[in-house]
Amino acid sequence: MTSLRIAMVGWCVALSACVIEESYQQLPPPTPVPDLVENREVYAQDRLELLTVHLTVTDLAGLDAVNNNVDGAKVPCVFQSDDYIADPTVPNGTLELRGSSSRESNLHSYKVKLSGDAWHGMTKLNLVKHPYDLTRVRNRLSFEYMQSIPNFTSLRTQFVHVFMNGEDIGLFENVENPSKTFLAAHGLPAGELYKANNFAFFDLTDVQKTNTNELDKVLESKAVDPTDGHAKLAEMLKHVNDSWVDTDYVFARHFNFDNYTTWLAVEILLGNFDTANQNFMIFSPPDSDGWYLLPWDYDGAWGFNGPDGQPGTQNRAQSRLGVGTWWLSPLHKRFLLDSKNVALLEAKMDQLMATVLSDDKTRAMLASYHDIVASLVTQSPDVDHLPDNHAPDTAASILAWETEYARIGGQLSRNYEDYYKQKDVPMPIFQAAPIISSDQIIYQWDASFSLVGDSLTYDLEVSKTPAFGAGDIVLSKTGLTKTLFVGPSLPSGQYFWRVRVRDARAGTWQESAELYYDGQGGKFPGVLPMSI
Questions:
Q1: pLDDT per residue as tens digits for the range 358-387
Q2: What is the pLDDT of residue 17?
């Protein structure tokens, strides 16, 4: 989050100073961005079943390199299934590791690229293990729901039983690969499609505008118009990040407003909070300035992190609860600053809960998957690696799986209720680097915001330790109304400081989005170090 923090602080400073790099002449009137309409017959080809796949790799050294996450490792393979017959001696594809954090898991996910005919309409397969999801179905559940959500799209998924060189490696989910082929299969025009890796709608750097490899590090190109390059993307981001361009104009010209509110409502209701700067896609059709937000990766949704999340997972930091997790993006911040937009978001949540989403539907979908998933997740190797800390007690692991599987059936209602519980919590902030001189220290931070219109104050504390024990605090100021405080000088040494936002009427508080690691496994949300 360091790059996000730096960019956000810079954006806020630019706003407060009302500085822009150029004076805009009259902007052209926006052309309405039409609703997103896909060909939903694409989903009819997938039945609820367990498909069996055999992967054969004769280059064992190459396979070890893949499994050991050697940079760029890829190996020829033979792909076969009951409905895809191939010569077992002639490679018909390549195999490589896929994912980011899952690469460090004992159970790997794989990407298979077929060199010949498509399998179930796909030549690029994402065989995903979901090693950290105890249920193994959060992603499938999400994408099945999205097949019925208007002005949105989904991805095809299949449950797959995979054998590698004859060895049973258990249950996987094949997730449709976003690409030009994906767009065509869903009846969408061959426009520009990107997947967010570390992208929060901040402006592109000059290098990112001209170097696709650099851009891919934050926003991966999945399908791009070669005649346009990234000019349309750059134009949208320039307007998003320019405070002199009216917010209503930004949304009217560059986004379909209903698609945007649908995306944010879905993230809130499904509890997919790790989407401030990743795990989503953006798409723009040709001959349009408009962009649509599309879904990607939901294995961390459905109450995965706490409070009261999947057993063994860490609680989300205070700054990542509620809509505060999206406040750190300039696009989402613009939206949330307007109370009429918040009302429209809540109306969209109500609409989805009344028409598409419900706990009863969730439980019915989970029941339909249950026996398929249980047939493999209760057996080796899956049961030996479930994230429940009960191995090698198989019975305890199966019970933990069943318990979590049943628990997420009521998660939609809990997420809906949690939104309103969190609504009067102030928005998170970032802290700027202190300005230290011989006789004073200047502390600065962003202004927070109340979605319910309450007055806010700030508490500043400086401590000798990141835990802020009562005997370690060397400076404490409460009830501050400004985002700057000039404090006295301090003796040489290592210090830590934090700012908390208070809503006295609601009795709620918020911390900064900073996160300090002490190098010994300790994590301290809302804390920054300071050396004197």
A1: 999 999 999 999 999 999 999 999 999 999
A2: 38
Residue with tokens 């690229």: 113
36 DSSP β-pair partners: none
Cβ-Cβ contacts under 8 Å for 439 (sequence gap 6 or more) = 488, 489
Name residues of the chain where pLDDT drops below 50: 1-3, 6-23
Question: Per residue, what are the HEC states of 9-56?
Answer: HHHHHHHHHCCCCCCCCCCCCCCCCCCCCCCHHHHHHCCCCEEEEEEE
Report the amino acid identity of residue 263.
Answer: W
pTM above 0.90, yes or no: yes
Q: Which residue has the tokens 């077929």?
A: 114
User: With 0-12 CB in 10 A as exposed, 13-18 as middle and 19+ as buried, what is 44?
Assistant: exposed
Residue 178 CA to residue 133 CA, distance in Å, equals: 22
Give how far the C-alpha of residue 252 lies from the chain's centroid of Cα atoms, to the nearest Å: 25
User: Tokens 């995965």 belong to which residue?
Assistant: 304
User: Which two tokens mark 459?
Assistant: 């508490």
- Cβ atoms < 10 Å from Cβ of 257: 18
Summarised one tens digit per residue, pLDDT across range 214-256 is 999 999 999 886 666 788 999 999 999 999 999 999 999 999 9
Domains of the chain: 41-176 (no CATH), 435-531 (2.60.40.10)
SS3 193: strand
- Which pLDDT value is given to residue 224? 80
What is the Cα–Cα distance from 29 to 515, expressed in whole angstroms?
42
Residues with Cβ within 8 Å of 41's Cβ and at least 6 positions away in sequence, in order, are: none
